[in-house]
Design goal:
Pfam families: PPK2 (PF03976). This protein has 283 residues and is of the alpha/beta class. The protein has one domain: Rossmann fold, CATH 3.40.50. It has 12 helices and 5 strands. A 5-stranded parallel sheet has the order 2-3-1-4-5, sandwiched between helices.
């Protein structure tokens, strides 16, 4: 699965958007069961936190991927955060604040559905949004130059390095959807009554900015894929295969940590197991 890890600069137009894996749904059931069992061990071990960041264009399949990949997780060990437009309170803090307070505790999985990267994606395509952050020295859109964005990339890299050095394992997945497949999925939302609620006229406005978004994604991925926080570009045109690829990447990577194991009982408890059993059986 290292095929999808970004270890050198990429060009998105040259990366795959569709891979079809035979029996992907069946294979996913097996993989997510293994992942769920490993989650129990990680929870008991309590040493590592797991942060999973999922980005992608509208209709890339983020919600359904989260639902299917983590279906066999114990709910006490996983938290999903979907980041929308910043609230009034969030805008009174720096842009990373709301992401920092949502980080998973050790022993838990945290899934970010849209992430801190929105701050170098949506805001870069729509720089006017930055004005809502009320940043000192940024008095107009004209002040948002290349130096500003370079600082943001540096801040994001420092943020991820800091949390990684303190016990968080980071996985970043870009669901790489083709423009043709997005068109198909948007039409399906319009054609199926039960899918209508998912459609917004804003989706079409954003679709017109496809090339701008692709350029921003490409630069963000290239500037922030690090050994401690790698990006994976996941072909997203076939949803079952995309889900399996993500699940398998997580499982393979986490199994490499041979120090993740269930904690042993302390010596006193271990020595008195038979006594405790006798007490219970004698009730």
């Amino acid at each position: 699965m290292n095929t999808y890890k970004v270890t050198s600069p990429i060009t998105l137009k040259d990366t795959q958007t569709k891979v079809v894996i035979a029996d992907a749904k069946k294979k996913l059931k097996h993989t997510r069961r293994e992942l769920g069992a490993l989650q129990d061990t990680i929870y008991a071990h309590g040493k590592y936190a797991i942060l999973i960041c999922i980005q992608g264009m509208d209709t890339a399949g983020k919600d359904s991927l989260i639902r299917e990949v983590f279906k066999d997780f114990n709910v006490r060990g996983v938290e999903v955060h979907s980041f929308k437009v910043p609230t009034e309170l969030e805008l009174k803090h720096d842009y990373l604040w709301r992401h920092y307070i949502a980080l998973p505790a050790r022993g838990k999985f945290g899934v970010f559905n849209r992430t801190h990267y929105e701050n170098v994606l949506v805001t870069r395509v729509h720089p006017g949004y930055i004005m809502g952050e009320n940043i000192p020295g940024i008095d107009s859109v004209n002040a948002i130059d290349d130096v500003f964005w370079e600082k943001r990339f540096e801040q994001i890299n420092n943020f991820e390095k800091h949390v990684a050095e303190n016990g968080t394992l980071i996985f970043k997945f870009f669901l790489n959807l083709s423009k043709d497949e997005q068109k198909f999925r948007l039409l399906r939302r319009l054609n199926k009554k039960e899918k209508n609620w998912k459609f917004s006229a804003g989706d079409l406005k954003e679709r017109k900015l496809w090339d701008d978004y692709q350029k921003c994604y490409e630069e963000a991925i290239n500037k922030t894929s690090k050994p401690h926080a790698p990006w994976y570009t996941i072909p997203a045109d076939d949803k079952p295969s995309a889900r399996l690829i993500v699940a398998q990447i997580l499982l393979d990577a986490l199994k490499q940590y041979d120090d993740i194991k269930e904690p042993e009982l302390d010596d006193e408890t271990k020595a008195n197991l038979n006594l405790y059993k006798a007490q219970l059986e004698g009730e």
